[in-house]
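User: My advisor asked me to double-check a structure prediction for FlaA1/EpsC-like NDP-sugar epimerase before group meeting. I don't want to rely on an old file, so could you generate it fresh from this sequence?
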Amino acid sequence: MLEKMLSFSRHNKMALLMLLDAVLLPLALWSAVILRLGGSWDPKLNPYLWIFFVPPFWVLPIFIHLGLYRAVLKYLDDKIVYTVLSGVTLAVLVLTAVIALAGMHPFPRSSIVIFWVFAMAYIGGSRFLLRGLVRRIDAVDAPREHVIIYGAGRAGVQLMLALQAGREYRPMAFVDDNPSLWRRTFRGVAVHGPQELPILVKETGAKLILLALPSVNRARQREILESLESLRVPIKRLPGMADLVSGEVRVEELKEVDIEDLLGREPVPPRRELMSANIENRVVMVTGAGGSIGSELVRQIAQCRPKLLVLFEQAEYNLYAIDQSLASKAPDCPRVALLGSVADHARLTQVMRTFGVETVYHAAAYKHVPLVEHNPVSGILNNAFGTDTAAQAAEECGVDTFVLISTDKAVRPTNVMGATKRLAELVLQARHARGSRTRFVMVRFGNVLGSSGSVVPLFKQQIKLGGPVTVTHPDITRYFMTIPEAAQLVIQAGAMGLGGDVFVLDMGQPVRIADLARRMVHLSGLEVKDGNRPLGDIEIRYTGLRPGEKLYEELLIGDNVLDTDHERILRAQESLIPEADLRALLDRLKATCDRLDAESAFALMREAVQEFNAAERTQDWVCLAQTR
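Assistant: Sure, here is a fresh prediction for FlaA1/EpsC-like NDP-sugar epimerase from the sequence you gave:
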């Protein structure tokens, strides 16, 4: 019957509640009088029986005015007590006045106080009883997934309340590190210590653990995630406190555990004077503006109030995407979106002169190691000669600062991509050494999380599809940082350079890729399938090192490194090649590339980049096909 009533319209439900109150109010007054009289009836009250039926005539309008009937039963909270208290108190005052004006001397005055208590109990209690019944019916109709909330602070309790009012999750228990909270209950949900988690997961049948720790630092989050890994239960987390405070997200909006939470690296807040030095009130150009690093650079630059932001990109869709992103997130930033290649000298000089570019962030590059390894000529032309062309255009157009986005793969490179980036560094170093008016700065860092081609999105997709997760070698390690932190550090390093500088970003500790894959599987609530666990869910398959791939990446060629006044930025002292010698090598290399002679280009790369620990011969697909 109650289920049928729940299907009524909103107005019909309000009418039913008013009818219920019209019955409960006379019952409350009758109960109060009978209790006061000791269970017997006083015949002197017979002429005044009408007093038991008139309270609804003034009480219901009071309740309507206070909004009691606008509240949705399922989502009632403790504020309903205040509403009922106010309404009943006003009703008792009116009742007292009516009794006095009617001269009802036989009516026991103390029963009015008892009526106040009974009315509160009947009206308020009926609401909470109905709320419980509605939620129970709702839970039966829509079975909810059992979850455990890690964190019983304010955010955890708010999350619990939000989930209890929803239809997706049922909070079964809290877990918190604070012993003073253990054995407390919040709305019927008890708080337990972390050591009880394995038992709680088993007893409650929890299918998900929710981290409600928006203010905990990354290092502590990493410790917690490592402790939860063995439970094989999927984990989601609340957004950060900054997002909650700003109102960008709500408490109940849960997120997947990010890989940066697993790394435990705490980003350093950017220094405003360094962020704005080359940007504020300047015309800034970003090449490769639609790429992973380029697009984040663009977003960071847009926040530093440039006079004009020039987006230069070869890929049409990538340019469109970043332009649309800025239109919604930084509409006040003046910008122009331009298609073009960094190998096109005429286009570059046209753009730089027309808009008066003062700062260039050169992020345009082919960066995928296997692709460049199999297409070396294209990689050399784009990465090395593209940088040389852009640098030449910058000098000719009077650009003040030119910042190259380099890579740790340029250090003692074992692949063509890394060698081309080292050659790009050498080109800029040579230009500075001969006295260029443009300040050339190079910033070298490792892998960024979430970039196109990164292992992290690949692993997520492979886990989603049921595996296998592919890792090239059991011992392969890489440095990681987030894209926003990398972009901020690039901008700050670019402001610190005097010219010819090679800056190295502190990437923290290297991460073993096999461990990263295993942890991502476990935190997805799955088991790794291997020799010890043949019934596991996801296999980690080792495919062998790809051509040109290193086991360990480095950030420095030598040990000659200097500190800067920024804790995450170091200055490397790298050797260079005099411009005359380098230019002769470049001319020969350009000629071989123009002939599409990958074999000769590969050999000249080893001559130009002396640290290039190359394979025996090029892996160019065309050359390999021609020799079959």
